[in-house]
Amino acid sequence: MAVIVDGAAYFERLQQAIAGAERQILMIGWDFDTRVALARGDDPARQTPTGDSRIGTLLRRAVRARPMLRVHVLRWDLAVVKMAFRGTTLPFLLDWMTHDRLTFRLDAAHPIDSCHHQKLVVIDDVLAFCGGIDVTRGRWDTPAHLDDDQRRTDPDGEMHMPWHDATAAVNGPAAAALGELARDRWLAATGEELTPPPPLETRWPDGLEADFEDVGVGIARTIPAFDGTPAVREIEALYLAAIAAAKRTIYIESQYFSEDGIAEALAARLAEPDGPDVVLVLPLEADGWLEAKLMDSVRTILVERCQAADSHDRLRVLTPVTEAEAAIYVHAKVMVIDDRLLRIGSSNINRRSMVTDTECDLAVEVTGSDAASGTTAKAILAVRDRLLAEHLGLEQADWQAMLATHGGQLVAAVDAARRPQGRSLQPLPLPLLDPAERALAAAQIDDEDAVEVFSAEVTKAAAMWQRRPGLAAGVGIGLGAVALAAVWLARRKAMPGEKTPGGAPQ
Question: What whole-number distance in Å separates Cα of residue 194 and Cα of residue 232?
Fold first, then answer.
């Protein structure tokens, strides 16, 4: 198993894997854009013979070159609304619809308020990728996260912001297990049962150094209850069990931090006199205006709760910036507990990833003979240190030396390593919430307890807007948000009681 950091490295390995596929390629994702080039820049070693490394072209070329190869691409159904605005995407897909060995389907096998969010690529059941990176626009970047890297230009001609992400590559039985999972998802979404490929020789991308060898890899899933299929909430159980088991350090990277159960678990550990250090690496703000309004307000309240519990100064909530101090968007979903557990996958720290969306994470845990040798424990820490060194703008060896100087105390070492200017990690600024924003956020967190508070604050806000006619646009936006929230709250209250893994009503 290898942890692949950032989109440039992943796309390079994926291009190699597609070129080596023999019988079956399974691509299961939240989004997919046929126009995205996997190779960028002028390095000829990373270009195809024709110079066209667009994923759509690579897949069509692969099936033409190998008569026994079949490609199956599955993406979330509501993501299809973006297609009409994506240049050559529709022509690509129309071509695929008439191809007998290259198949594209949409995944609608989920509740109406859910989405398909797994991000898997499986090659011949002998090599697989699982993590947080979709093959779509906006994902390509290098660990340098340069301020003006023209290679981040998307197919539509716009340059996207610096983007931090992560995925993992596995082979052996773990790859075969992910192949089975991907075919199960295809069956659920399409009703079509895919035949597994015949046994083939295991393979590994050229030049990719494995972080782990001869190690057990766990698979954790979230699958919502749908059409008679029971819910699966392994990811939530893994988060809670891992946080409870931490002894010295909890390191988390996540796109969102809006799940109150996870926040409460972290707050409980922070309140302990001898609990672990906790370092959260989050984006400056959510991607998109509506997400920022809804998710960042919830995040603010949950971070405040963790800070209130942090009476021993063991919490740091940080966001990465470039050399020019521009925001680097954190899309990675990673958790490292001490030197004992690594989790990487598609799940964010939000309620959707715990309950309603389809998710898939991988985990490596130190057990048995691993504990005696220490090899896996060292590899887990090396992954965490590679991530922190990238964010801090340091060489990994320099960061590890600083960590050793501080006796392995994660918070103390991060505090010493952070620079006030330039490439580094900066404290995450929390927005000031007005009463209506705070009430709406509280309603999302504690919906049953906050309905009355939310209604009262909305009434106050509406009265204020009526006294200030210049805010007509704000009234419209505010009432729209109120209407959405009211529908959401009513639906939540009408839902039958769910059960958490521990059996308590949720």
Answer: 22
Q: Encoding tokens for residue 238? A: 């893994």
pTM of the complete model: 0.86
Write the CB contacts of 150 (distance below 8 Å, at least 6 apart in sequence): 159
pLDDT, greater one: 96 or 374: 374
Q: CA 205 to CA 20: how far, in whole Å? A: 9
Environment class of residue 207 by beta-carbon count within 10 Å: exposed (0-12), middle (13-18) or buried (19+)? exposed
Q: Helices in 342-434 by DSSP H: which ranges?
A: 351, 369-373, 375-392, 396-405, 410-417
pLDDT digits (tens, 9 = 90+) for 104-160: 998 888 888 888 999 999 999 999 999 999 999 999 999 999 999 999 999 889 999
> What is the predicted pLDDT for the residue at 464?
45
Place of tokens 């003979």: 369
Q: In the Cβ-directed half-sphere of 438, how many Cα atoms lie within 13 Å?
A: 12
Cβ neighbours of 111 (radius 10 Å): 13
Q: Is 458 helix (H, G, I), strand (E, B) or coil?
A: helix
Task: Name the nearest CA neighbour of 333 among 130, 160, 144.
Answer: 130
279 in Cβ contact with 237 (< 8 Å): no
The first and second tokens of residue 379, run together, are 């590899």
How far, in Å, are 111, 348, 443, 456, 457 from residue 450 at the CA level?
A: 25, 24, 5, 10, 10
Contact 295, 256 (CB under 8 A): yes
C-alpha to C-alpha distance for 273 and 313, rounded to whole angstroms? 10
In this structure, what token pair is assigned to residue 279? Answer: 């370092």
- Do the strands 70-76 and 102-107 form a parallel or antiparallel pair, or are they unpaired? parallel
Computed over every residue of the chain, the mean pLDDT equals: 85
* H or E segment to which residue 308 belongs: helix 289-309
